[in-house]
């Protein structure tokens, strides 16, 4: 997979990809992540990439020209499955969306800033708009990092144990069951006996029941989606 991220703050994005799972996935050659500074695609004074709104109003708007130039250049080099715009009013990122995007080959992610982008960008260049929650950030970079993490960890070979991702919270629209490790007893707090007896069919049944009960208690809305 190749991910191209268009941003005005590439330095803000680099750190998440220089450690842990994301770093290893890049070193293994399982994913390529490239950052493109939008200011490199403008011929305006002071590398300007935003301007005032037509009709007045507070806040600057990212101009269409540098965004179009960058996306056009990238598309001239390869095809892309999705051109994603990170925006608070996009579709909320969920596990099903991450699962689907992990199967594609190439994606572009555009990080918004200021009051947003010229609507013509959204109308003609963007194929998918994604939000990571009902709140506003200073820019789309942190959202892009979250999206990339959610996608990349699902790519085969990224995790040491590939079945781990399949039992994560929100897979099958359920929260994950409780997990325990050694010691089996600590200050009188005991691990459930079913997890210690080696009866794997019973263990799986316990986990399924716990996942359902936790979801029913903490996120009943997930069950309503069925």
UniProtKB/TrEMBL annotation:
Keywords: Cytoplasm, Methyltransferase, S-adenosyl-L-methionine, Transferase, tRNA processing. GO terms for biological process: tRNA N1-guanine methylation. S-adenosyl-L-methionine binds at residues 112, 132-137. GO terms for cellular component: cytosol. It catalyses: guanosine(37) in tRNA + S-adenosyl-L-methionine = N(1)-methylguanosine(37) in tRNA + S-adenosyl-L-homocysteine + H(+). InterPro entries: Alpha/beta_knot_MTases, tRNA_m1G_MeTrfase_C_sf, tRNA_m1G_MeTrfase_TrmD, tRNA_m1G_MTases_N, tRNA_MeTrfase_TRMD/TRM10. It comes from the Bacteria. SUPFAM superfamilies: alpha/beta knot (SSF75217). It is an enzyme of class 2 (transferase). Belongs to the RNA methyltransferase TrmD family. Specifically methylates guanosine-37 in various tRNAs. This is tRNA (guanine-N(1)-)-methyltransferase. The gene is trmD.
